[in-house]
Amino acid sequence: MNRRWRRWAHLALAAAGLAAVLWAVLLSANPTIWCRDQVMRPGEVCSNAQGTKVQTYEERFSAAQWARPVVGVVGAVVAGFGVLLYRGSRRPSTQVPARS
User: Where are the domains of the chain?
Assistant: First the structure.
């Protein structure tokens, strides 16, 4: 029973990696930029609560776009690792006979 749960965990890891890749490719192509619970539009600025840092919509949009390839690559690596773990757990275990 322990092996079955382990295989499902490996598949879940691969699925999480695949979800990250899909997010990077499909869902983040046109992100919604937020500033403290308010949707930003081009040309607007956002300052932090202390008023010490100001970011424009374009800066935030650029940062979101730079995150896409990072999330995609990390997701692909995680998905591949999960598949390798799953394939390794499917192999029959070879037990060494005990010495008498």
Answer: 2-90
Q: Is the pLDDT of residue 94 over 80?
A: no
- Kindly state the DSSP code that residue 99 receives in the 8-state scheme: P
Helix or strand run (H / E) with residue 59? helix 57-90
23-56 confidence digits (pLDDT tens): 999 988 888 999 989 999 999 999 988 888 999 9
Whether this prediction's pTM lies above 0.85 is answered by no
CB 61 within 8 A of CB 43: no
C-alpha–C-alpha distance, residues 68 and 88, integer Å:
30
Would you mind telling me the total number of residues written for the chain in this entry? 100
Residue closest to 24 by CA, chosen among 81, 66, 82: 66
Q: Are 57 and 67 in contact (CB under 8 A)?
A: no
- Name residues whose C-beta falls within 8 Å of residue 81's C-beta, 6 or more positions apart in sequence: 13, 14, 17
**Cβ-based neighbours of 91, under 8 Å, separated by 6 or more:** none
- Please give the structure tokens belonging to residue 86: 């799953």
